[in-house]
Model the fold of this input.
Amino acid sequence: MMGSPRKMACMAGILPTEVLRLPTITKKELTLLVSDHANCKKNLAAKMVESLFNAMRDSLIEGNRIEVRGFGVFQVKDTRPKPAARNPRTGEIIYVPARRKTHFKPGRLLKEALHKTREPEGTTDPSAAAGAAMPHIAPPSEDSTL
Done:
Protein backbone atom coordinates (compact mmCIF):
# COMPACT_ATOMS: atom_id res chain seq x y z
CA MET A 1 0.00 0.00 0.00
CA MET A 2 1.37 3.40 -0.94
CA GLY A 3 1.34 6.30 1.47
CA SER A 4 0.81 9.96 0.81
CA PRO A 5 3.37 11.83 -1.31
CA ARG A 6 4.45 13.74 1.80
CA LYS A 7 4.99 10.54 3.83
CA MET A 8 6.86 8.85 0.99
CA ALA A 9 9.09 11.91 0.55
CA CYS A 10 9.92 11.91 4.26
CA MET A 11 10.85 8.24 4.02
CA ALA A 12 13.12 9.10 1.05
CA GLY A 13 14.84 11.83 3.07
CA ILE A 14 13.24 14.77 1.23
CA LEU A 15 11.94 17.62 3.36
CA PRO A 16 8.12 18.06 3.22
CA THR A 17 8.47 21.65 2.02
CA GLU A 18 10.38 20.44 -1.06
CA VAL A 19 7.60 18.05 -2.10
CA LEU A 20 4.68 20.38 -2.65
CA ARG A 21 6.52 23.32 -4.24
CA LEU A 22 4.50 24.18 -7.31
CA PRO A 23 5.18 27.20 -9.48
CA THR A 24 2.84 29.93 -8.30
CA ILE A 25 1.98 33.26 -9.84
CA THR A 26 0.74 35.77 -7.29
CA LYS A 27 -1.80 38.50 -7.97
CA LYS A 28 1.06 41.02 -8.00
CA GLU A 29 2.95 39.03 -10.65
CA LEU A 30 -0.26 38.64 -12.65
CA THR A 31 -0.69 42.42 -12.48
CA LEU A 32 2.83 42.91 -13.81
CA LEU A 33 2.14 40.48 -16.68
CA VAL A 34 -1.06 42.36 -17.58
CA SER A 35 0.77 45.68 -17.36
CA ASP A 36 3.57 44.47 -19.66
CA HIS A 37 1.30 42.83 -22.23
CA ALA A 38 -1.28 45.64 -22.33
CA ASN A 39 1.38 48.37 -22.29
CA CYS A 40 -0.35 50.20 -19.47
CA LYS A 41 0.74 51.55 -16.11
CA LYS A 42 1.08 49.11 -13.25
CA ASN A 43 -1.48 50.89 -11.06
CA LEU A 44 -4.07 50.71 -13.88
CA ALA A 45 -3.32 47.00 -14.39
CA ALA A 46 -3.65 46.46 -10.64
CA LYS A 47 -7.08 48.12 -10.66
CA MET A 48 -8.15 45.99 -13.63
CA VAL A 49 -7.01 42.72 -12.05
CA GLU A 50 -8.53 43.62 -8.67
CA SER A 51 -11.87 44.65 -10.20
CA LEU A 52 -11.98 41.46 -12.29
CA PHE A 53 -11.43 39.27 -9.22
CA ASN A 54 -13.97 41.27 -7.19
CA ALA A 55 -16.57 40.91 -9.93
CA MET A 56 -15.91 37.17 -10.21
CA ARG A 57 -16.06 36.71 -6.42
CA ASP A 58 -19.33 38.66 -6.13
CA SER A 59 -20.86 36.75 -9.02
CA LEU A 60 -19.93 33.37 -7.54
CA ILE A 61 -21.26 34.37 -4.11
CA GLU A 62 -24.59 35.18 -5.78
CA GLY A 63 -24.55 31.66 -7.24
CA ASN A 64 -23.89 32.66 -10.85
CA ARG A 65 -21.88 30.60 -13.31
CA ILE A 66 -18.89 32.32 -14.97
CA GLU A 67 -17.95 31.07 -18.42
CA VAL A 68 -14.74 32.27 -20.06
CA ARG A 69 -14.57 30.83 -23.58
CA GLY A 70 -11.31 29.03 -24.27
CA PHE A 71 -10.42 29.03 -20.57
CA GLY A 72 -13.14 27.35 -18.54
CA VAL A 73 -16.20 27.61 -16.32
CA PHE A 74 -16.34 28.65 -12.67
CA GLN A 75 -19.46 27.66 -10.78
CA VAL A 76 -20.81 27.02 -7.31
CA LYS A 77 -22.01 23.53 -6.45
CA ASP A 78 -23.98 22.40 -3.44
CA THR A 79 -22.64 19.47 -1.43
CA ARG A 80 -24.87 16.94 0.26
CA PRO A 81 -24.96 16.68 4.05
CA LYS A 82 -23.08 13.76 5.55
CA PRO A 83 -25.08 12.55 8.55
CA ALA A 84 -22.64 9.80 9.52
CA ALA A 85 -19.11 11.13 8.99
CA ARG A 86 -16.40 9.99 11.38
CA ASN A 87 -13.76 12.05 13.18
CA PRO A 88 -10.53 10.20 12.29
CA ARG A 89 -8.80 11.09 15.58
CA THR A 90 -11.53 10.11 18.03
CA GLY A 91 -13.67 7.80 15.92
CA GLU A 92 -16.72 9.86 16.98
CA ILE A 93 -19.60 9.97 14.50
CA ILE A 94 -20.37 13.57 13.54
CA TYR A 95 -22.82 15.38 11.28
CA VAL A 96 -21.37 17.42 8.41
CA PRO A 97 -23.95 19.89 7.04
CA ALA A 98 -24.46 20.66 3.35
CA ARG A 99 -22.44 23.59 2.02
CA ARG A 100 -21.52 25.34 -1.19
CA LYS A 101 -18.18 24.88 -2.90
CA THR A 102 -16.50 26.36 -5.94
CA HIS A 103 -15.79 24.23 -8.97
CA PHE A 104 -13.68 24.94 -12.05
CA LYS A 105 -14.04 22.99 -15.27
CA PRO A 106 -11.30 23.76 -17.81
CA GLY A 107 -12.38 24.62 -21.33
CA ARG A 108 -11.41 22.67 -24.43
CA LEU A 109 -8.50 24.94 -25.43
CA LEU A 110 -7.02 24.90 -21.93
CA LYS A 111 -7.46 21.13 -21.68
CA GLU A 112 -5.71 20.61 -25.01
CA ALA A 113 -2.84 22.89 -24.01
CA LEU A 114 -2.42 21.07 -20.69
CA HIS A 115 -2.47 17.64 -22.31
CA LYS A 116 0.34 18.42 -24.73
CA THR A 117 3.57 16.72 -23.75
CA ARG A 118 6.11 19.09 -22.31
CA GLU A 119 9.73 19.00 -23.31
CA PRO A 120 12.27 18.31 -20.53
CA GLU A 121 13.62 21.33 -18.67
CA GLY A 122 16.32 23.28 -20.47
CA THR A 123 15.53 22.04 -24.00
CA THR A 124 12.95 24.65 -24.92
CA ASP A 125 13.70 27.95 -26.59
CA PRO A 126 13.26 30.60 -23.85
CA SER A 127 11.95 33.19 -26.31
CA ALA A 128 9.22 30.81 -27.49
CA ALA A 129 8.24 29.91 -23.93
CA ALA A 130 7.94 33.56 -22.92
CA GLY A 131 5.61 34.28 -25.82
CA ALA A 132 3.44 31.26 -25.05
CA ALA A 133 2.81 32.34 -21.45
CA MET A 134 0.41 35.12 -22.36
CA PRO A 135 -0.67 36.42 -25.76
CA HIS A 136 0.28 39.96 -26.65
CA ILE A 137 -2.60 42.37 -26.09
CA ALA A 138 -2.52 45.52 -28.17
CA PRO A 139 -2.95 48.73 -26.22
CA PRO A 140 -6.28 50.47 -26.72
CA SER A 141 -6.28 53.09 -29.43
CA GLU A 142 -7.03 56.72 -28.64
CA ASP A 143 -10.35 56.47 -30.55
CA SER A 144 -11.75 53.46 -28.69
CA THR A 145 -14.04 53.95 -25.74
CA LEU A 146 -15.37 51.42 -23.23
